[in-house]
Each structure stands twice: as structure tokens, then as C-alpha cells.
């Protein structure tokens, strides 16, 4: 472990948000700087994780009973409640579930406070299952505005789509699976940020990307076998999570994490990177990170993708020195030809080099460990 505390903090808000952090800590193992906050003292559990109780005097540790206004007031009572946990923190990733009072009400207030401290924020928030009813759905939708307003980047994940295809009829199972799926996705993102790989992507890079982006979309996919890269492209292209407001004209950056064991092929990285660019990020900047972890990913290829849209308020700027064209290679094209998302575009040729092919492939660079 590093002697320096990480500059990136994972923060769970509310009951389900706390359960998500607990799940992430369990699957990642030691090394995550994490904390949860809730108005319900029971969420703190057995002291197995860092936990802060919100609204002690006002709510006496009993939760808000579905009232976002109570959670907002509780945070406004003591906005400095988090500050002692923020030493050296430059970016906070919040996980929460909308539909109840604490996640829905406190998250926007927390974001506002973090913004005043100059801390960048990325929020993953689930939207209730349709079976939870109209009232929860309405409460959740009402919370979106303040989260979007105060977060640098927010990702809203409908639980119906997060567990699509899981084929469970049992309500408790479905809720648990929603938390698990979300925890798994964020765990993968954490590995890309913190674990070594062939191509490094670090928290500071994430912080830079977050500025000027608005909403984002997030999905993961895993495959095995000789066509695993193509299978992953097909699965992500069909993902319901990446279908909502997909408008590649507004995609600013694609963050692609490739996690694998020692058998990762350079061509697989190229296929995934170029295929995802072609499918989702016409003209977007591609940020790639790899994780090499034989113990966890032996024989498997897992991809985590975050699609960052241009902020509604940001004006579109072309970064100097950035080639803003689709990166693609033949394998990526072939894999995507199966999907309806892929749009062919003319190659960008310069000095007999096809600039649409990532530099490390075009120049046959070796990726050192
Ligand atoms: N209660 C509960 N909610 C879950 C679970 N898994 C996912 N959720 C989702 O989380 C949303 C918010 O519920 P909670 O996290 O319990 O609410 P909270 O933020 O703690 O807010 P209050 O308890 O009302 O103060 C629900 O609408 C569900 O969509 C679960 O296992 N239990
Ligand atoms: Mg609660």
C-alpha cells in the first residue's frame, strides 16, 4: 500500500449507498479510501468500515423515512461533517441510490459543499426499479436536478436496466442484485485507477477529464475465449445502459479500462479501443487504461467504459494537439459491423498513415510492463 493517502475518495450516501461501498470494499480488498454517510445509524453496521452519522440531533439515527428535505436540512446543519475525512482528497466518487430520502436529499448538498472546497466529483446514482412504484420514482427524479447542478459528472443508472436479463422475480433478490451490479462496476473502475497495468490511467487524469463534462454513461462487460474482444464489443453495443441519450455528437471523452490476465493481446486492446470509439465516440478523445492482474482475471477479458458527454453549458472546443477523429482498426470494424451502432467514416490519412488507427498500433509500439 502507498504511504500517501489516496487523492480519490469513495463516498456512499444513504442506506443503499452504504451497502454499495461495503460491497466494493469486499470485492476490491484493502486499499480503497472509502467512507459512508447515512441518517440511519443501523447502516454503520459493526464498525467494519468508516461511517458517519448525518443529522444526529435532528433525526436521532432513525433515517428520514423517505424525506429528501430532512436529509438536506440535516447536512445544512453541519456541512463540515465530512471535512476531517477529506485531507488530501482531490476527487470524490459518490455512489448512491435515489428513491429514498437520504441519498436523494443529502447528495446534492454534499456535492455543493465539495465544490466549494475545489474537489472534483463523479456521482453514480441508481434510479428505482419500476416495481417500487410511482412515488419512489417521482422522488428520485426530483433529486436529479440538484445532483446534476453540483456534480462535475453524474451517471444515472436505472436499476431495471442495470439488472436487465438477470431473470429474477423475487423483490429482495432484485434489490440485492442491483447493489451488487453497481458495486462490481465501480470496483472495476477503481482497479483501473489504482492497479498497475501496461497503460496507466490514474486519479489525476480522471480529475482532468471530469472538468467540463456533464452526464456520463457507464457499463461493463466480460468475456472469455478466442473472440472475447469482439464479444465484449457486441455486448456493450447492445447494453441498455449505453443506449439512453446516446448521441455521439455530444460525446467528449471515452474512458476505456481493459482488465485482463497475462494473456492480454495487443490486438485485443486495439479491437476494443477502436471498436468503442467507432460505436460511441465519433470525434471524442479516447482515454485508455489497462490492468494486468493474472490472479483476478486469468483467461478473462473485462472492459469498463465511461462515456462522458459534453456539459450542457460547455462550449465545444477542439483541444490543440488532439486528433479528433474515430480511432478504429479492421478487427474493430468487423466486430461492430454486427451492430447497428457502427457508422463507417472516411479514413483520416496523413503522410500515408491512417490517423484513425491508435498511434501505439500504427507505430507498432510495444507496451512495457
Ligand atoms: N431499501 C433498499 N433499497 C435498495 C436496496 N437495493 C437498492 N435499493 C434502492 O435504493 C433506493 C433508496 O433506498 P435507501 O437507500 O434505502 O434510501 P435512503 O437513501 O437510505 O433514504 P431514507 O432511508 O429514506 O432516509 C430504493 O428506492 C431502491 O431503489 C435494498 O437492498 N434495500
Ligand atoms: Mg435509509
Summarize the model shown.
The protein is an alpha/beta fold. It has helices at residues 14-28, 56-59, 68-77, 102-116, 134-150, 159-162, 171-194, 203-210, 228-238, 266-280, 294-297, 330-336, 359-362, and strands spanning 8-13, 34-38, 51-53, 91-97, 120-127, 153-158, 213-224, 251-260, 285-292, 300-310, 349-350, 353-354. The longest helix is centred in the middle third of the chain and has 24 residues, at 171-194.
Entry keywords:
about 375 residues; alpha/beta; Rossmann fold; 60s Ribosomal Protein L30, Chain: A; 2 domains; six-stranded parallel β-sheet; four-stranded mixed β-sheet; 12 strands; about 20% strand; globular; disordered C terminus; binds guanosine-5'-triphosphate; binds magnesium ion
Report on the architecture of this protein.
This protein is globular. It starts with 7 loop residues before the first strand and ends in a 7-residue tail after the last helix. It is α/β, with parallel strands linked by helices. The chain has helices at residues 14-28, 56-59, 68-77, 102-116, 134-150, 159-162, 171-194, 203-210, 228-238, 266-280, 294-297, 330-336, 359-362, and strands at residues 8-13, 34-38, 51-53, 91-97, 120-127, 153-158, 213-224, 251-260, 285-292, 300-310, 349-350, 353-354. It folds into 2 domains: 8-194, Rossmann fold (3-Layer(aba) Sandwich); 213-362, 60s Ribosomal Protein L30, Chain: A (2-Layer Sandwich). The site of magnesium ion has 6 residues, from α1.
Amino acid at each position: 500500500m502507498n504511504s500517501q493517502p489516496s487523492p480519490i475518495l469513495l463516498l456512499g450516501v444513504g442506506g443503499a449507498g452504504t451497502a454499495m461501498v461495503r460491497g466494493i470494499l469486499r470485492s476490491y480488498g484493502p486499499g480503497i479510501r472509502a467512507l459512508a454517510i447515512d441518517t440511519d445509524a443501523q447502516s454503520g453496521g459493526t464498525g467494519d468500515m468508516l461511517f458517519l452519522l448525518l443529522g444526529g440531533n435532528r433525526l436521532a439515527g432513525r433515517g428520514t423515512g423517505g424525506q429528501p428535505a430532512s436529509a438536506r436540512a440535516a447536512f445544512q446543519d453541519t456541512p463540515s461533517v465530512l471535512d476531517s475525512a477529506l485531507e488530501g482528497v482531490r476527487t470524490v466518487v459518490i455512489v448512491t441510490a435515489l428513491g429514498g430520502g437520504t441519498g436523494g436529499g443529502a447528495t446534492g448538498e454534499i456535492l455543493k459543499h465539495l465544490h466549494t472546497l475545489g474537489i472534483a466529483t463523479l456521482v453514480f446514482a441508481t434510479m428505482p426499479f419500476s416495481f417500487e412504484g410511482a412515488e419512489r420514482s417521482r422522488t428520485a427524479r426530483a433529486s436529479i436536478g440538484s445532483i446534476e447542478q453540483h456534480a462535475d459528472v453524474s451517471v444515472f443508472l436505472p436499476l431495471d436496466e442495470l439488472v436487465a436479463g438477470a431473470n429474477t422475480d423475487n423483490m429482495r433478490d432484485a434489490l440485492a442484485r442491483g447493489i451488487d451490479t453497481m458495486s462490481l462496476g465501480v470496483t472495476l473502475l477503481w482497479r483501473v485507477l489504482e492497479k498497475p497495468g501496461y497503460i496507466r490511467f490514474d486519479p489525476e487524469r480522471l480529475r482532468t477529464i471530469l472538468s467540463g463534462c456533464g452526464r456520463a454513461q457507464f457499463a461493463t462487460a466480460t468475456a472469455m475465449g478466442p473472440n472475447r474482444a469482439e464479444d465484449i464489443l457486441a455486448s456493450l453495443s447492445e447494453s441498455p445502459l449505453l443506449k439512453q441519450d446516446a448521441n455521439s455528437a455530444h460525446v467528449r471523452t471515452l474512458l476505456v479500462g481493459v482488465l485482463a490476465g497475462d494473456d492480454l493481446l495487443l490486438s485485443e486492446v486495439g479491437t476494443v479501443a477502436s471498436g468503442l470509439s467507432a460505436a460511441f465516440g465519433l470525434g471524442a478523445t479516447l482515454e485508455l487504461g489497462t490492468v494486468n492482474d493474472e490472479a483476478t482475471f486469468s483467461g478473462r477479458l473485462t472492459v469498463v467504459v465511461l462515456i462522458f458527454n459534453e456539459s450542457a453549458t460547455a462550449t465545444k472546443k477542439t483541444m490543440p494537439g488532439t486528433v479528433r477523429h474515430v480511432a478504429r482498426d479492421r478487427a474493430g470494424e468487423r466486430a461492430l459491423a454486427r451492430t447497428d451502432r457502427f457508422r463507417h467514416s472516411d479514413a483520416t490519412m496523413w503522410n500515408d498513415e491512417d490517423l484513425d488507427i491508435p498511434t501505439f498500433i500504427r507505430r507498432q509500439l510495444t507496451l512495457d510492463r
